[in-house]
Design goal:
- Helix content is about 40%, strand content about 10%.
- The protein folds into 2 domains: about 5-65, no CATH class; about 135-495, TIM Barrel.
- The protein has helices at about 1-20, 25-45, 50-55, 60-75, 90-100, 165-175, 190-195, 220-225, 255-265, 285-295, 310-325, 345-350, 355-370, 385-395, 405-410, 430-435, 440-465, 490-495, 510-515, 525-535, and strands spanning about 120, 135-140, 145-150, 150-155, 180, 200-205, 230-235, 250, 270, 300-305, 330-335, 375-380, 400, 480-485, 485-490.
- It binds flavin mononucleotide.
- Flavin mononucleotide binds near residues 334, 380 and 381.
- The site of flavin mononucleotide has 29 residues, from helix 15.
Length: about 525
């Protein structure tokens, strides 16, 4: 598009130079058209707005629509009814914080506080000032290079799903703001390393970046990449909330020559990662894999990411951690409400546990097996505000990741074209023309601003609650209206276990079935294993 627009502008300029200006009609049209040409040239060369850079002149219509959108919203696109995952309120707060615009709201509470499901935290009469530069140490006793993480970081999004400009802007933002940037499963590209931001290298089932020709895991290639000083932690991806149990999808239209060679795949075909890992097939084997990654990386923190599915399988992982004496340093819990570049609708909408239930379960299982002390829990799934952070930390997380919040910070307008290579703002496209509209420097500032302002607000909320550090947050801090006359805190809504509860003979009722049927030696249920054995005999 930028190419066509350029041609039209040069053509118009040429016409006005060549045609003699004494023809009155031409003079008139000059008066009409010249301002448009000037606006177009200005749009084309400015760096703040990708949509205006990519679509000079017509890009302004979006801003005009935005001006009248509050009224339109009442009828058409209020909240989520327009099919966009984030409400107008959520989008606005990200844009305002990213641009360092005024982010206060006028007139008062903009929520129905009597609505069922309304959540809040109670403030204190004796609040504190809490510094926004709070850090959480990731790295248990088995790790030699612990990492001090920020409360909000950039969630996994691959180069390929995102353009190189988007990856660069995110990484530079992470560098400027002092937080980490997860590579996503599509390998650690040069764009993730160029600016020096802290990187979490994600390894998915395709083992991109550390893969043998047959698609299996290569320890030698892994060790070589993992040694890079910008890579601070390694995350094994088991599943993600938007398509759990499916495996990654990169549509053929987005597979460039560079991406194909980086991932070791063919061009012209969708890149589909398998839904399962080939480096391990049982919980115990997975722990051994974690141990080998830790050794191969020189002792960097190793964790895994999952959207909670079968509870028994996670219990089996906890059993394996205890049995093998090997623990991950962190676990990222992704909610079923999470985002993706491309996924089948049914998987996005109807597979995988939502974040609240998944997070509370993972926290409890780790506490119950007395494993929580050295494992940090990271939450992701529609986290865009300071309150989102405080609420997830109260439920049981230690820190948070955001994917689409960060995308909005670099200009995502939810055009919902991530799976088609035609993203108008140059974020989820590898079309060089569209991507050139995204200016790395100015967008990196927005990433930094969004993260900083959001974390600052989270720490201000903690201060208002009389809480000095995120580790003091507890389930009883978070309130929820459960019916029109009843309010409960999260400690009342969910059962929170005591340390070691799942190691006792008398198991809590809610965990009994999952614990009795789990085994560290298989992801299958014990009863199914026995039936299988009988069948074999
Ligand atoms: C464009 C895009 C690409 C993504 N790629 C990956 C990926 O490679 N690996 C992964 O584990 N999650 C991936 N995700 C999921 C996010 O990391 C995150 O778990 C999820 O979007 C929830 O966060 P959000 O609600 O803040 O977006 C992707 C999400 C988006 C929007």
């Amino acid at each position: 598009m930028r190419k066509e627009v350029r041609i039209i502008f040069y053509f118009l300029i040429l016409v006005y130079i060549l045609i003699p200006a004494w023809i009155p009609q031409i003079l008139w049209s000059l008066i009409l058209v010249l301002p448009i040409v000037v606006v177009g040239i200005r749009d084309y060369f400015q760096k703040k707005h990708s949509i205006r850079r990519n679509f000079p002149v017509i890009g302004h219509f979006r801003y005009m629509l935005e001006m009248i959108r509050p009224e339109i919203n009442q009828y058409f696109i209020e909240s989520n009814s327009d099919g966009r995952p984030f409400s107008r309120e959520q989008r606005s707060v990200v844009y305002q914080r990213a641009k360092k615009e005024r982010d206060t709201v006028p007139f008062g509470t903009q929520k129905d506080v009597y609505e069922i499901g309304y959540e809040w935290v109670n403030h204190s009469i004796a609040p504190f000032h809490v510094k926004p530069d709070m850090r959480v140490r990731i790295g248990g006793p088995q790790c030699k290079q612990p990492y001090e993480a920020a409360l909000l970081n950039i969630s996994a999004m691959s180069y390929g799903a995102l353009s190189s400009h988007a990856v660069e802007a995110l990484n530079l933002g992470a560098k400027k703001g002092g937080f980490y940037h997860n590579t996503g499963e599509g390998s650690c590209s040069p764009y993730h390393l160029k600016h020096g931001g802290d990187v979490v290298w994600q390894i998915g089932t395709g083992y991109f970046g550390c893969r043998e020709l047959d698609g299996t895991f290569s320890p030698e290639k892994f060790a070589k990449v993992a040694a890079h000083p910008h890579i601070k932690m390694i995350e094994i991806k088991l599943s993600q909330g938007a398509k759990p149990g499916h495996g990654g999808i990169l549509p053929a239209s987005k597979v460039t020559k560079e991406i194909a060679s980086m991932r070791g795949v063919e061009m012209g075909k969708d890149v589909i990662s398998p839904p399962w890992h080939t480096a391990f097939s049982t919980p115990i084997e997975m722990m051994k894999f974690i141990k080998s990654l830790r050794e191969l990386s020189g002792g960097k923190p190793i964790g895994f990411k999952l959207c909670v599915g079968k509870r028994r399988e996670f219990i089996a992982l906890c059993m394996a951690m205890r049995e093998a004496g090997i623990q991950p340093d962190f676990i990222t819990v992704d909610g079923g409400e999470g985002g993706t570049g491309a996924a089948p609708l049914e998987f996005s909408n109807s597979v995988g546990c939502p974040l609240t239930e998944g997070l509370v379960f993972v926290h409890n299982a780790l506490v119950g097996f007395d494993l929580r002390k050295n494992i940090r829990v990271i939450a992701s799934g529609k986290i865009t505000t300071g309150f989102d952070i405080v609420s997830k930390l109260s439920m049981g997380a230690d820190l948070c990741n955001s994917a689409r919040g960060m995308m909005m910070a670099i200009g995502c307008i939810q055009a919902l074209r991530c799976n088609s290579n035609t993203c108008p703002v140059g974020i989820t496209t590898n079309d060089p023309e569209l991507m050139s509209g995204l200016d790395v420097q100015s967008k990196s500032e927005r990433v930094k601003n969004f993260q900083f302002e959001t974390v600052k607000t989270a720490t201000e909320i903690m201060g208002a609650m009389g809480v000095r550090h995120s580790r003091e947050l507890r389930p009883f801090h978070l309130m929820r209206r459960v019916d029109s006359l009843t309010v409960k805190h999260y400690g009342e809504i969910f059962e929170y276990l005591n340390t070691g509860d799942l190691l006792k003979a008398n198991l809590p009722k809610s965990f009994e079935r999952a614990c009795r049927s789990a085994t560290s030696h298989s992801f299958m249920a014990l009863e199914d294993l026995r039936t299988n054995e009988l069948n074999v005999i």
